[in-house]
Design a protein that fits this description.
It contains 2 helices and 11 strands, in the order βββββααββββββ. A hairpin with a 5-residue loop joins strand 1 and strand 2. The protein is globular. The protein starts with a strand and ends with a strand.
Length: 172
Amino acid sequence: MQIRRVVTGHDGQGKSVFISDACAPRAKDFSDIPGYGFSLVWLGGATCDGDQSTLGGSLLPGAGGSSLLMISLPPDAVMAAPLDPQRAFGEMLEELPGLIECFEAEAPGMHRTPTIDYVVLIEGELWLELDDGEERLVRSGEVVIQNGTRHAWRNKSDKVAKAAVFMQGLVR
């Protein structure tokens, strides 16, 4: 999922300048799950020490840090039936460090991250499922504030859904 990223900063005299204008450095379209992809647009530390998205490691921001993750989620029927399940799982382990470990093996899709997430649905619709199966439909243009709670995103439609997820790492 390629996303153009324009980054600004300051030169030696404090004047605003363009630092870069290119695709986000960490992105993936999963080969065995058509329509499933992500782009880590930004990952920053608590001290605003620049972009950490190119360093590898966790997709999740550390305590006090922040990130922007763009995601593309295919319909549940596609997610549940990867073309090659073993290879798909291997790709997720490799490409989603920090995030994949938050998912529960015994409850597919359910996860909890140590973040506050501001989720803006850009395209399509998703169902947000919480504990005990309670659900709410979220449509394009709507926003969810996810306060570090256990949840799953369900795409019950027949179209890919896309969202921007702004994450703030919780300070514990």
